[in-house]
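Intended use. Records like the one below are meant for learning the mapping from a protein sequence to its folded structure. Do not use them to infer anything beyond what is encoded.
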Amino acid sequence: MRDYLISGKINDLDITSEALPMEVENFYEGEADYTFSFFGAVSIKYKGYRFDFTTLRKEEKYEDSRHPSKITFVKELEVDVLRRDFTINGLYMDDEFRVYDYISGQNDINQRIIRMIGDPLTRIKEDPLRILR
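Structure written out for the chain above:
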């Protein structure tokens, strides 16, 4: 989404939905990686492309500084966005190219600002790799 708004190109495709990983497995019979399905993440390969599919979720307690110890699947974009790292990564687009922006990510793209969602120190402690992004 971010890349599309910046350049008009899509470099990769991240799909977010209410569908649970086991539901993805039921409707997709091709090559897929379910290693992180506990976290609601499935990587699908289709016609030479990789799609990262993630269930809408809420995360709590990052005890290992990388992965949340508790996941709750949700149905609201407004809840899911709060777990994301940067405002420019917290944008959603539907199949009609309508943008859903709950955290001023589009404004930050236009202003060329990289800003954490929530408290920056908390976000970095949750997952220190975020600082490299």
